Amino acid sequence: MEAAVGAANWLLGKVLTKLSDDLVAAFVASSELGRNFHSIKCQLLHTQGLLHAAQARDMSTNPDPGLYGLLAELSKKTDDAEDLLDEVHYFMIQDMLDGTSEATGQESEVIRDGRHAIRHTLGNCLRCFSSCLTSTKDDDYAAKSSNPHNAAMPGSGNDGLPVDKLPFNRVDISNRIKSVIEEMSSISMPGSGNDGLPVDKLPFNRVDISNRIKSVIEEMSSICAFVSDLLKIANQSSVATSTAIPLSTKQCLKRPTTGSTVTHDRLCGRSVIFERTVKALIGGTYHDEILSVMPFVGPGGIGKTTFAQHLYNDERIEGYFTVRVWLCVSTDFDVHKLTRQIHSCLPANVKEEHKCKNETASLDQLQKSITQRLKSQRFYHLKFLDLKYWHGSEKLPKDISRLVNLRHFHSSKELHSNIPEVGKMKCLQELKEFYVKKESVGFELRELGELRELGGELSIHNLETVRSKGEASDAKLKSKRNLKELTLVWGKKHQAMDDDVLDGLHPNHNLRMLGIKNPGVAPCPSWLCGDISTKRLEALHLEGVSWGTLPPFEQLPHLTELILKNNTGMHMFGPGFGGVTERSFMCLKKIVIEDMPEFVEWVGGSNSYLFPRLESITLGDCPFLCSFPFLECSDPFTNLCRLIIYNCPKLSQFPPMPHSSTLTNAVVFENNRPKLIYTETELSIDGYTSALAFHNMEKVGVMNIKGVSHIPLSDLQKLNSLHRIHLESCNDLFSAEMDDSVVLRSVKDLHLEGLSITGELF
Questions:
Q1: Percent of the chain residues past pLDDT 90, beyond the cut
Q2: CA–CA separation, 26 vs 347, rounded Å?
Q3: What is the pLDDT of residues 71-127, one digit of tens each?
Q4: What is the Cα 476 distance to its own chain's centre?
Q5: Could you give the C-alpha distances from 669 to 65, 105, 703, in angstroms and in order?
Q6: Which of 44, 162, 345, 693 has its CA 20 to 30 A from that of 171?
Q7: 5 or 483: which carries more pLDDT confidence?
Q8: What distance, in Å, lies between the first and last C-alpha atoms of the chain?
Q9: CA 640/CA 90 separation, integer angstroms
Q10: Residue 380 burial by Cβ neighbours in a 10 Å radius (0-12, 13-18, 19+)
Q11: Do 505 and 488 contact (CB within 8 A), yes or no?
């Protein structure tokens, strides 16, 4: 009922505002309503007054269905009337601007009044302009004389302080007045549009619109009579009921109490502003404000409460705000009572310093208790924080570690590494990076020791600042059973001799990937180079180590990936060298050996099947490497599908490539220049001298051949997928075998460049 009364009151007020317009009122008074117009307008005002009074009463306890229906009908008719009056207003303004009399039938007083208003305004502007030019000093003196104590002038502000004199710019004011006068003068010019062309006028039917206005206003008047009678009864009943109730209670009855439960399932006609409001609340618009208020303003019944209920219960709002309290203030604004209501909605904090009883506590006690409860709620119940797509500052709040219940923090590595005192977040299950910072409080290794639930991946940097095994043990990596990937990183300039920090960084036996980078000349830790405790390792990355002996790989039966990079002291690799046996790599699928200036030979032997499952080999920047098992015998590498060789100049004679149909990616670089690039569908060679196995190139469609002479064209005609050949600088490629028997039937594009061909070849 409250919504129906509010809506009717609002619409009726809009119609009365339209009827107060001089132009519209003149037309309606001249229509067939005649003398009845004044009495009908009074009837509408009377009904508006009763509706306004009804809004101040609580009509929800015993709603009248008859009144509800009449209010709905009145709202409909009022809406129709507003549309008609808008239409009249349009035509009357058009008459005034065009100097016509279609809407009035003759040049009425309204038109004359309109023109007079324009002339009057122009005259005032001219007088103002003249006075501005001549009376500036006199006006200033008069203002000071009439306000000798510099009291606040009307409209100057609310603080009563002296008002600074505004600067006077004669040229600026002259130009602005001239512009306004020219714009106002142009109003009287008929039919000018933005493009300089006449604008088509809408047709005006005086008889039709007069009849429609007469009909709808008389219907409104008739309904208003019935509504007024019922409202009088309702208001009298409400007044009689409230006579024996104290003033404070009567004030509470003026508006019904509301709760956060959504009373209407759908929020009609507000989807755009609703989404905009949600984004403003959770999108950072108010992050810099200590206290922010978002008001919803509008007449009663327009849907403010429903809008707020939907906003309060939206999933995004629930997830963003840890604490939400619904408070119905109504008209009984009792600060102490409202504070008690807020206090009772917040769960008590066990460690609360300012404990108090809700019923007997003072306002100050309640406010302090609320502050502590809000802080504890803010940090006690948030479990998931997603900042994956955060592009703002990488600086986190200093007290973010108070999110003690946070379990999942999805963000970049940079944000993870900037959490001070992360050890307080004992429930945290993921931390991608941690930087040991001795100069900053809250970034010591012992912070990691508190994170027992830590899982996933973790990289620990700046380990060169850690001085002892005991300090390293503070990280308690051995107890982190959920941690799957661990990377330990020292600075590149770290050269400590008797460093046992690695021994103190003993990981849990469940670890799947281990990376150790730049530990200097420190020895291999006992938990990796003795009896390996991390026997479930699937990937091992050793970079910048100086160990004379590598880990006993046969103790790592699940190892599928091995990366050795920039390691000194390693000359030979294979069975009998550095802890490697013939059964060390039975499950290995990927091996990378890079930047090894002392590495000479990868020992294998022609009959050894050390790598039955190897799929990828990468060898790079090994200037003295002269051999590896694949060169000696490629047959055992039946699963090899990727071979990358770069800047290993002593590796020259390769087996026919690709050695099998499983090899789909082969690259050989020399001096940063590609000699061979092979994919499953394309072959490019430039000065490559080793043999090619064309019978394994069934899917090759494009060949780019440069600077070679050993390709038998008879083999090319067997490639049914080959459709494009580019030959460059291959002078000796065409030999006596090039006769009528060699036909490249599938080739559609043959490009020859830089060839010296003699004899009758074509």
A1: 29
A2: 64
A3: 788 888 888 877 877 777 777 777 777 777 666 554 444 334 444 444 444 444 434
A4: 36
A5: 89, 95, 18
A6: 162
A7: 483
A8: 100
A9: 83
A10: middle
A11: yes
Cα 292 from Cα 280, distance rounded (Å): 12
Q: What are the start-end ranges of the H helices in 537-671?
A: 629-632
pLDDT digits (tens, 9 = 90+) for 223-238: 888 877 877 776 555 5
What's the CA gap between 230 and 66, in Å, rounded?
A: 9
Q: How far apart are alpha carbons 253 and 153 in whole angstroms? A: 41
The sign of the dihedral angle between the CA atoms of 55, 61, 64, 68 is positive
User: What's the rounded Cα separation, in Å, for the pair 504 and 487?
Assistant: 14
DSSP label at 564?
Answer: E
The amino acid sitting at 265 is D
**Neighbouring C-alpha atoms within 13 Å toward the C-beta of 705:** 23
User: How much is the pLDDT for 511?
Assistant: 97
Residue 129: which of 179, 84, 166, 91 has the closest Cα? 179
For residues 540 and 512, what is the distance between their CA atoms, to the nearest angstrom?
A: 9
| Spatial distance between the Cα atoms of 378 and 321, rounded to a whole number of angstroms | 8
Three-class DSSP category at 687: coil
Give residue 517's identity as a one-letter amino acid code: K
Angle (nearest 5°) at CA 625 between 590 and 609: 45
d(CA 691, CA 671): 21
Residue 26 · residue 104 · CB < 8 Å: yes
The C-alpha atoms of residue 603 and residue 599 are separated, in whole angstroms, by 11
**Radius of gyration (C-alpha) of the chain in whole angstroms:** 44
The pair of structure tokens assigned to 449 is 């020791």
Residues in the chain: 762
> DSSP states of 7-33 as a string?
HHHHHHHHHHHHHTSHHHHHHHHHSTT
- AA letter at 740: D
Give me the torsion for CA of 243, 246, 251, 253, rounded to 10°: -60
The conformation of residue 479, written as its DSSP 8-state character, comes to G
Beta bridge partners of 684: 677, 704
pLDDT digits (tens, 9 = 90+) for 363-410: 988 888 888 888 777 767 878 888 888 887 778 888 888 888 889 999
CB-CB contact of 580 with 606 (8 Å): no
pLDDT in tens, 137-167: 344 433 333 343 333 333 333 443 344 455 6
Q: Is 7 exposed, middle or buried (0-12, 13-18, 19+ CB in 10 A)?
A: buried
